[in-house]
Amino acid sequence: MKNSSAIITFFLMSQLVFAERTYDYIKNGDEIKGKRTVYTEININASPEIVKKKFLEFDKWSKWCRVIPQIKVLNGDINNLESKPKLELTLDFGRKKDPQKAPINPIVTVNNKEVFVWGIYNGFLIKAEHVFVFEPINGGKGTHLIHYERMRGMLSPFIMTKKMKVTMTEHYNIMNQDLKKLCENKINKKINKK
Question: How confident is the model at residue 9 (pLDDT cuts 50, 70, 90)?
């Protein structure tokens, strides 16, 4: 009995260690399970390194992003996830009082070469993850951006309604287009200078 509990403990601990290093993200729209996922994607004619670098320049979001015109790191360091970096988002979904601050400040849980995730985690009530995946295409000269939000928990059916899914999909696509324009304009300016 002692051996089996030691094995189970080792297995659970190893899963925690591995979970911090990788993130099992949705790779295409066909993988979506359940009704509470908003999935978008776009190809950008710029390398993943350039796209992610521009994406992480939070102080410049007001210049290019119409959907989340302001993003701030409230505390922690997005490059040190142990510091539990917390973000403050200002959202503009075209509602009467927009732009307005998001009601809850998400925590950055994944920031590696390919994936960036912020989320809200409140036990069984709500788990909402906003995921950005920067996949290389065209030999690393381009980026396939996968951008989605997935909600689970008891409150998720009340938050992610059919109407909200339509609104979120529309605005996430706008956000994707804004990032594409930003990154491709930077590339075109470099090409024209040569």
Answer: very low
What is the bridge-based pairing of β-strands 142-152 and 126-137?
A: antiparallel
Angstrom distance (rounded) from CA 177 to CA 41: 10
Q: Which residues pair with 128 in a beta bridge?
A: 120, 151
| pLDDT in the model for residue 187 | 54
Please tell me the distance from the alpha carbon of residue 130 to that of residue 113, in angstroms, as a whole number. Answer: 16
Q: What's the Cα-to-Cα distance from 167 to each of 92, 160, 161, 173, 189, rounded to whole Å?
A: 11, 10, 10, 10, 33
Q: Is the pTM of this model over 0.85?
A: no
pLDDT tens digit sequence for 35-66: 789 999 999 999 999 999 999 999 999 999 99
In the chain, DSSP assigns E strands to: 37-44, 70-75, 86-91, 100-101, 107-111, 115-122, 126-137, 142-152
Give 141-169 pLDDT, tens digit per residue: 999 999 999 999 999 999 899 999 999 99
Instruction: Give which of 172, 160, 137 is closest to 41, Cα–Cα.
Output: 172
**What structural domains and CATH numbers belong to the chain?**
27-193 (3.30.530.20)
Calculate the alpha carbon distances from 33 to 28, 101, 147, 150 in Å.
Answer: 11, 30, 16, 10
Q: Specify the pairing of strand 86-91 against strand 115-122.
A: unpaired
| Residue 125: strand pairing partners | none
d(CA 46, CA 177): 13
